[in-house]
Amino acid sequence: MTCTDATVLAGRRILVVEDEYFIAQDLQMLLQEIGAEPVGPVPTLQQALDLAGRTPALDGAILDVNLGGEMVWPLVDLLRERGIRIVLATGYSDLVIPSPYADLPRCEKPTKSRDLLRHLGS
């Protein structure tokens, strides 16, 4: 993705849910660099649910699938109900993702920034 393509996300609020500190910080910095507003990052499912619940205007979300042993599916359901674009950032293969979530874009860890941006900006 070129810088011009990344401007599609400028000004958009993107929820970042990731339990690995350095990956979370990288995602936050990436979003800031392209002019998006990161919401979070948060490392737990409960913190993510709380943050999503009190942040009405979200334009997208980057979600780690496994947050310290808790799966992110309740958050995915909440965000889907609100029509928020979701990208899964995970080391899990497509075969491990439950069928109700198989249609979600997935970027394997370590994620490539251009892949995340492409999925969020499309």
TrEMBL record:
Keywords: Phosphoprotein. It comes from Lichenibacterium ramalinae. The keyword Phosphoprotein applies. GO terms for biological process: phosphorelay signal transduction system. It comes from the Bacteria. Residues 13-122 form the Response regulatory domain. InterPro entries: CheY-like_superfamily, Sig_transdc_resp-reg_receiver. The lineage of its organism: Bacteria, Pseudomonadati, Pseudomonadota, Alphaproteobacteria, Hyphomicrobiales. Gene3D superfamilies: 3.40.50.2300. This is Response regulator. The modification 4-aspartylphosphate is found at residue 64. SUPFAM superfamilies: CheY-like.
